Amino acid sequence: MCGLEIPTDDHVIVGMDSPDDAGVYRISDELAIIQTVDFFTPIVDDPYQFGQIAAANALSDVYAMGGVPKTAMNLVGFPLKQMDISILRQIMQGGLDKLKEADVVLVGGHSVEDQELKYGLSVTGFVHPDRVLTKKNIQVGDCLVLTKPLGTGVINTAIKGGVASAEVIERVTRQMAALNRDAAEMMKQFSVHACTDITGFGLLGHLAEMVVGSGCSLRLNADTIPILPGAIEYAAMGLLPAGAFKNREFRESMVGFSSSVNPLLRDLLFDPQTSGGLLICLDRADAKQLIGELHAKDIGEAAIIGDVLPAAPEKIRVQ
Amino acid sequence: MTEIDARGLACPAPVLKAKTAIETQRLNAVRVVVDNAAAQQNVQRFLETQGYESTLETDSDGYVVVGRRDATVRAEPQAGPVTEAGQIKIMVMIATDRFGYGDDTLGSKLMVNFIRTLNEMGPDLWRLVFINNGVKLTVEGSEVLAELKQLQEHGLQILVCGTCLTHFNLLEHKQVGETTNMLDIVTAMQLADKVINL
């Protein structure tokens, strides 16, 4: 989009000039809409599960902005000549069931014939214009709460390569299909300063976006960062996706690692995530209470992974 | 030196190509040519976990990763289990729910007895793998569940074939062990000092 003129107006709260998880547009003093779209090629073999994951992933951006998703539309690219149409039906069923779970209605969609299967959704949500959560506004003294373990990128590559164990596949599929709704609802009880969901840029890529221009720096505690079973092992086998290397190349100048941090873990912090967890910034006392409530609600791997410090030459320190 | 041309391939294909080559041909020296930095780093990492020393050359074709390992040194993944000096690794593979041929009732009784006595192997017992009819010993109603759970609690890794559980419709009834695939089983066979088949 570089160099192109982007139309805008006074109602745009979050738009192209400050890239975030979704766009936000003010309708009245009480209501703004959140709009987002996300689609991709299959990451797991089971069509129903793929539909569930695609929907959970698309809905996540609305949760990360502090909103409630309301309506959705399907986006489909399908290779009619190579694939049985019943596969598409199973994918849609997975997506629909996930929308039902999230109390979101499907109001339409569009499909095209494509050489490669693609599925995703465009989602619209509501939020009060004063309660929009963006990536900006982190504050010194905040803690960083991550609600899902990392490692979906490397595990999905292992699945593609046919080397992932059945148990690891089951676990990662369940995690990717899990909605961020409960975590989002719980965080609204607290004064949250900033929030995003961890997706394609990896944990460090998304943290870099949060810290740029904030006048702060971040400190991560490597031991507390939750990692999916199998992820370290597959990273050691050389199964990191190309995206992890791209993310690292783009952001590594902002990050310093203590020598004690395992090199494999360093790479996993750049691993692109599908339907990753929320990254929530809030006061230390609030963060501790939020963690307690997330654990009680079965979001058992949520953890405080670091905190926000005053500006430093090293924007992000992992120790 | 064997050369693997993995140019034009995206991750994880270059690693899988290298893996197949070194495993089927038992290579002690290999050159892997790739055309992108991600594949280069992944291939280097893979070779290093397989006991190779890797060096990187760049030429006009792209990146060339050269891996060499000492033929006398066993390849063993770095992340592999640590065993005490003098201890050997025994893998017991159980492909049946009965011990021996002949009388089935006797066979079942002998199998229960066998599993109960297995811990006499001590710390040398390294992996217990269940395939085919053997997986029935790991599901609800098996007479040796308590014994297997105890072995597992003491740190023994129990692997249960996922394809077999699915075949018998028992995937949800498994009570002990880790569901596994053929790659894990083959790797375990290769790493074990002794494999006992039942």
Question: Would you spell out the secondary-structure blueprint of this structure?
Answer:
The complex is a heterodimer of chains A (319) and B (198).
Chain A lengths: L11 E3 L8 E4 L5 E9 L6 H18 L3 E11 L6 H17 L3 E9 L4 E10 L15 E4 L5 H9 L5 H12 L3 H7 L4 E6 L4 H10 L4 E5 L10 H6 L5 H10 L3 E3 L5 H6 L9 E5 L1 H13 L6 E8 L5 E3 L1
Parallel strand pairs in A: 4-5, 9-13, 10-13
Antiparallel strand pairs in A: 1-2, 2-3, 3-6, 4-6, 7-11, 7-12, 8-11, 9-12
Helix pairs in contact in A: 1-2, 3-4, 6-8
Chain B lengths: L1 E4 L7 H13 L3 E6 L2 H13 L3 E7 L2 E7 L21 E5 L9 H14 L7 E6 L14 H9 L3 E5 H6 L10 E3 L1 H10 L2 E4 L1
Parallel strand pairs in B: 1-2, 5-6, 5-9, 6-7, 7-8
Antiparallel strand pairs in B: 2-4, 3-4
Helix pairs in contact in B: 1-2
Structural class of chain B: alpha/beta
Largest interface: A-B, 24 and 28 residues
Rg over C-alpha atoms of chain B, rounded to the nearest angstrom: 21 Å
**Major beta-sheet overview of chain B:** 5 strands, parallel
Strand order in space, largest sheet of chain A = 8-11-7-12-9-13-10
What does the average pLDDT of chain B come to?
Answer: 85
Helix and strand sequence of chain A: EEEHEHEEEHHHEHEHHEHEHEE
- The shape of chain B, in one word, is elongated
Evaluate the radius of gyration of chain A.
Answer: 19 Å
Low-confidence stretches of chain B: 75-84
Q: Strands across the major sheet of chain B, in which order? A: 8-7-6-5-9
